[in-house]
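Marked as duplicate of an earlier ticket. Keeping the data here for the record.
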Amino acid sequence: MENSIEISIDKAVEKLVKDDISAIMSNNTEEDSYIEYILEFGFKGYFHFTDAELEEELKERFSNKYKIIHDL
């Protein structure tokens, strides 16, 4: 069984935002990229994601399993 990295909502959002900014600043965007999609169609904001959505986004970006913890 894979262990999860525990992370607060605030830290999860901070980690995702920094990754987005890093991708933009390094011009590390591909055609049909996530950043391009956001700019074209909008974005609801990470603080509006469910815990499951945040966990999935973190896993996709950083190749680790995360668990959102509300008591950190």
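See parent ticket for discussion. Residues 37 and 43 are 9 Å apart (CA to CA).
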